[in-house]
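Here is this case:
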Amino acid sequence: MHATNRCLTKYCRNRNQRGQYCYKCAQRRWREANPLRDAFLNLRNSAKRRYIPFEISFDYYCDFAAKYDYLNHRGKMAHSFTVNRIDSTKGYIEGNIEMITNAANVAQGNRERALDHVWHKLQGCKIKPEPNPDNEPF
């Protein structure tokens, strides 16, 4: 039996469809070779999946990521960076994104959900809240 139709990656047992590598290994190699483009596409696809408008160009994203050294500080830990929308009612547009830590992003999301919960409770009781000029939750 010939192994000519197998992926060339060490320990990979998948068959290659075209070229030397299977789809999974080819994707991994591409992501490793293009980390900034991969991060951009992940952000765009995440926005698309959540029906959030995405109007940022790749060049703008490159400048933004280089300014904060995003590729070296991204991750899933609390102190790692993530891209956040300043105004969550708008999409990912130029001037509406900022780099914050994952912990700050979670805290901001919790604060917004708490405010939404209070707002819906007040709407159910037919009570209008007083305007809060400081944008503080309480």
